Amino acid sequence: MQTWTTEMWQAAGIGLIAGVIIGYLILRLTKASVKQQVKTETELKSVKAQLDNQNEQLEKHFAESAELFKTLIGDYQKLYRHYAQSSDTLLGKKPRGLFTQQLITATDKPQEEPPRDYSEGSSGLFKPNEEKNQ
């Protein structure tokens, strides 16, 4: 085995000091990034919680709005029926057509056939050239 000389001890000491300094700098740099990462994760969790809370409030709002609309529709139907019965009672059956039973029950059942917004047969736009020339 060899004995360590003064130069070897100095080199080892300088290496140790350099290693401690480099380790300290790396620790400081990574510690700040770890703090930033923890801070970012905390903010992300906070924002997710706020978003979940907002989505829950939106669901409750629209559910309540739907229930209120159902109630409103029912009240309008009751009012319409009241007017229809009152007009029959007070005006008699002669001025028919003011309040018809068809309008009362129209909202109760869905329409059985779709509206007809198209014409019967072809329009003639796509006729073959032979027919146009004749």
Automatic annotation (TrEMBL):
<dbReference type="GO" id="GO:0005886">
    <property type="term" value="C:plasma membrane"/>
</dbReference>
<keyword id="KW-0131">Cell cycle</keyword>
<feature type="region of interest" description="Disordered">
    <location>
        <begin position="105"/>
        <end position="134"/>
    </location>
</feature>
<dbReference type="GO" id="GO:0008360">
    <property type="term" value="P:regulation of cell shape"/>
</dbReference>
<dbReference type="InterPro" id="IPR009386">
    <property type="entry name" value="ZapG-like"/>
</dbReference>
<keyword id="KW-0997">Cell inner membrane</keyword>
<keyword id="KW-1003">Cell membrane</keyword>
<protein>
    <recommendedName>
        <fullName>Z-ring associated protein G</fullName>
    </recommendedName>
</protein>
<comment type="similarity">
    <text>Belongs to the ZapG family.</text>
</comment>
<keyword id="KW-0132">Cell division</keyword>
<feature type="compositionally biased region" description="Basic and acidic residues">
    <location>
        <begin position="109"/>
        <end position="119"/>
    </location>
</feature>
<keyword id="KW-0133">Cell shape</keyword>
<keyword id="KW-1133">Transmembrane helix</keyword>
<dbReference type="Pfam" id="PF06295">
    <property type="entry name" value="ZapG-like"/>
</dbReference>
<feature type="transmembrane region" description="Helical">
    <location>
        <begin position="12"/>
        <end position="30"/>
    </location>
</feature>
<dbReference type="GO" id="GO:0051301">
    <property type="term" value="P:cell division"/>
</dbReference>
<keyword id="KW-0812">Transmembrane</keyword>
<keyword id="KW-0472">Membrane</keyword>
<feature type="coiled-coil region">
    <location>
        <begin position="37"/>
        <end position="68"/>
    </location>
</feature>
<keyword id="KW-0175">Coiled coil</keyword>
